[in-house]
Amino acid sequence: MEVIKSLFEYEFIIKAFEVGIIVSLCSALLGVSLVLKRYSMIGDGLSHVSFGAISIAVAFGLAPLAVSVPVVVVAAFLLLHMRENGKMKGDAAIAAMSASALAIGVTVTSLTTGMTTDVSTYMFGSILAMTDSDVILSILLSIMVLVLFIFCYHKIFAVTFDESFSKATGVNVSLYNTLVAILTAVTIVLGMRMMGAMLISSLIIFPALSSMRIFKSFLGVVLSSGVTAVVCFCIGMIVSYRFSTPVGASIVIINLCVFFICCIIQRVQLALNNK
Q1: 30, 180 Cβ separation under 8 angstroms
Q2: Is the whole-model pTM more than 0.90?
Q3: pLDDT tens per residue across span 145-156
Q4: 138 vs 63, 90, 132, 145, CA distance in Å?
Q5: Is 23 in contact with 76 (CB distance < 8 Å)?
Q6: Residues 213, 263 contacting (CB under 8 angstroms)
Q7: Are 26 and 187 in contact (CB under 8 A)?
Q8: Helix, strand, coil in percent for the chain, rounding step 5
Q9: Which residues in the chain land under pLDDT 70?
Q10: In 3D, which of 228, 218, 214 has the Cα closest to residue 264?
């Protein structure tokens, strides 16, 4: 309790909690749909695109978030377009775009500013270095993501499980797939400060995978993922503060531990049901 009490004596840590909790929640909710559609690695690909955009922004003295958000949204739209048209398989499209964006970002960085602190924080994460403008923008965009997800929940549910049936019943499948991709892109950019390009995809994948071990309904998994993501973030922040470990890595390790616990619970449930 003393550790937790001392944790909230610092204003920058309070900001980190404000942004981290809402971004974790957004990531977890969208992650359920992405994992079920076997498109979970989009987070990894878009994070590399975001890093490339941020590297260019830093090199030319532009606002990183203002530049990277539209770039990553366009990248998400292109990935979805290539997948739907069958011109390139989803994993191949992600791999190609991811490698290209990362290479461009590293090259631009090496030719201009070099690996500065600003660039490094987006590569490996440093939520404690967020400015007031970053906090405000992150919270506003995260609220937008949550509102749109809740408002379109039933359509997203339908499109996630059966695109063909949804299309037959008059649902604009392309529109809602695009919406999920755009919301994911925005969330990825916001999560870059917290987790870094190397770890952000774990924020999308782990809560959904953990929840799917225990819950079977879509709503149950969505709610459980949201709670799991927020709890893991808070515990990860406390562990990071207590043991002076990187924030992003601490959050991922806590998520990994929760995933293993959920796997054990699943096995116990199956064993009890088979008796």
Answers
A1: yes
A2: no
A3: 999 999 999 998
A4: 13, 28, 10, 10
A5: no
A6: yes
A7: yes
A8: 85, 0, 15
A9: 1, 3, 83-91, 113-129, 197-198, 275
A10: 214
